[in-house]
Structure formats: structure tokens, C-alpha cells
Design a protein that fits this description.
single chain, Rossmann fold, five-stranded parallel β-sheet, 5 helices, 5 strands, binds 1,3,4-trihydroxy-5-OXO-cyclohexanecarboxylic acid, 3-dehydroquinate dehydratase activity, EC 4.2.1.10, 3-dehydroquinate dehydratase
């Protein structure tokens, strides 16, 4: 079965973007670590990043279909700033009906600006991992497998 590690806007800049907030690890490093961890847990991890809201929605739809076909376990999703703005991503997760999505944030968004305190994704998420740095992706992966894997 497959697991999707999905990253939203500006996360392609990981490693050089506000390192005091997000650290020095690049997205390629994070994706390689997720693939390793997934393999250890017995899953094939696909990684996808886009700065475009619609591309993220299309990917969630694709995994909704794979989930229904029994070919996907779920998704780890860092929606970036779309967390705080996107009803469309909320609706996409609700719309595929079933696919477990673990919301993941590198930084502790609740310790930051007020505009980061609200998430449109959380009410549609199967679980949330916040504030563990890039280790959060691995924690979310393991949590997904522990809660939904066989
Ligand atoms: C983030 C937090 C968001 O507020 C921000 O817009 C990001 C990254 C995080 O991983 O901490 O792009 O999702």
C-alpha cells in the first residue's frame, strides 16, 4: 500500500527558508527520510509538493480513489499557509470521504502569529502533529500506520 507525503506552498524552500523557524533540512532530505521510514513500516511513500492549491486538491482526489481501491493507507499533509486560508482543501479531504489525513506542521503554529492559530484543515484531519520540527513528518507517518495500518 502507498502513503502520500504531501507538502504545500513554500515548503520547496525548506532548508533555506527562515531556518530559525523551519531548520536547515531540505525538502529532498525530508522526503528521503519519509521514504526510508515508510519502507521500514512496510509502505511505499510517494512524495509530492506544490505551490498550487488546485494541484494539492487533485492529489488528494487521486489518493481518495487509491484509498477506496484499497491501494493507499493515508496521507501526511503539511498544507503550509493554505492551512489558514483554504476551505477548498478542507472540502477536498471531506470530499474523498475516508482517506485518513494527518496534518503536520514543522513549527508550533500556536506559539506564532495569531493568523496561524486557526486551521481549516484540522476539522477534516484524522490526527495532527505540530511543533516537532521536520521530525514531525516521521512522527505523523508512524502515527498514521499505528492508527490505521495492519
Ligand atoms: C507551516 C506553518 C504555516 O503557518 C506556514 O505558513 C508554513 C509552514 C509549518 O510547517 O510550520 O508554510 O505549515
Amino acid at each position: 500500500k502507498k502513503i502520500l507525503v504531501l507538502n504545500g506552498p513554500n515548503l520547496n524552500l525548506l532548508g533555506t527558508r527562515e531556518p530559525e523557524q523551519y531548520g536547515h533540512t531540505t525538502l529532498a532530505d525530508v522526503e528521503a527520510l519519509c521514504q526510508e521510514a515508510g519502507a521500514r513500516l512496510g509502505y511505499a511513500v510517494e512524495c509530492f509538493q506544490s505551490n498550487w492549491e488546485g494541484a494539492l486538491i487533485d492529489k488528494i482526489h487521486e489518493y481518495g480513489r487509491l484509498y477506496k481501491a484499497g491501494e493507499a493507507l493515508g496521507c501526511v499533509f503539511n498544507p503550509g499557509a493554505y492551512t489558514h486560508t483554504s476551505i477548498a482543501l478542507h472540502d477536498a479531504i471531506k470530499g474523498v470521504d475516508g482517506l485518513p489525513v494527518i496534518e503536520c506542521h514543522i513549527s508550533n503554529v500556536h506559539a506564532r502569529e495569531a493568523f496561524r492559530h486557526h486551521s481549516w484543515i484540522s476539522p477534516a484531519a484524522a490526527g495532527i502533529v505540530i511543533g516537532f520540527g521536520v521530525d514531525g513528518y516521521l512522527i505523523a507517518l508512524e502515527g498514521l500506520v499505528r492508527k490505521y495500518g495492519r
